């Protein structure tokens, strides 16, 4: 949490407002919540309100242990599932931080699961770390879609903050280059000017899909800084926690604009949460290492399991 952000809880009216947005399970319902004329407008309005309200809501939450890898914890049937969002950019700094945290968790007898692709970057020599099947599952689901695919060349071993969602084509590389150029001048121009330039660039370089996946300048800059300094991971995690609307809304929006992208991004959050719950039998502590952009979604689905809104009766591993 940065020093300029308010550290106060929501008012009663603000709490009612954020609960109303949180309770909407479709864009149609969001129209009634926001009073917007269309579902498109409702998404845009809610996104803006949600961000501002989540700043206040998250400011009131206790800070995580400064000596550990930051994340969020959800209790499900007597088991603690801790979700830790990282950049998985392959830096030495993040590798050391992740390995220290995972090794300590394994020594405590915890089960450790990681997003597919992360184990090969940081944890390949730790046999007790289980790599989930989220990418393989998403690609298998994509093959069932009756749409023209643009997943050629996609692979699970990618790294880099903007490659976290795969599908890194020419426009994504151009966006990353532009953001990199702006971010590199932050020490010279200052944070305020850099944020303004990034916002201007993002307005030209982002569209419907980028709104739902947070592929913007703020995400890029915070990811790059956290990759070099893991002490800033909490700042990146909070950014995603307040950027993404609840999963049903983000997934419906993205599914309308790019159903393949929805499967390889937010749908994987559901898969990872189900995977961890389905596989854990004995450990009271379960640690999940995922990309920071996935942390809010994995948390959402774990909370659904906690509240009895999901079960694993239909879960099965890929052949």
Overview of this protein structure:
The protein is an alpha/beta fold and 319 residues long. It is 56% helix and 8% strand. It has 16 helices and five strands. A five-stranded mixed beta sheet has the order 1-2-5-3-4, sandwiched between helices. A hairpin with a 2-residue loop joins strand 1 and strand 2. Helix 15 packs across helix 16. The longest helix has 21 residues. The chain is globular, with a radius of gyration of 19 Å. The N terminus is likely disordered.
Which descriptors apply to this entry?
319 residues; alpha/beta; five-stranded mixed β-sheet
Largest sheet, if any? 5 strands, mixed
Helical content, roughly? 55-70%
Sum up the overall morphology in one term.
globular
CA-CA gap between termini: 43 Å
Strand tally is 5
Radius of gyration: 19 Å
Per DSSP, what share of the residues sits in E-state strands of 2 or more residues?
5-15%
Structural class: alpha/beta
Q: Which strand order does the major sheet show?
A: 1-2-5-3-4
- Number of helices, where a helix is a run of at least 4 consecutive DSSP H or I residues: 16
Poorly predicted tracts of residues: 1-7, 152-171, 173-210
Overall pLDDT confidence: 80
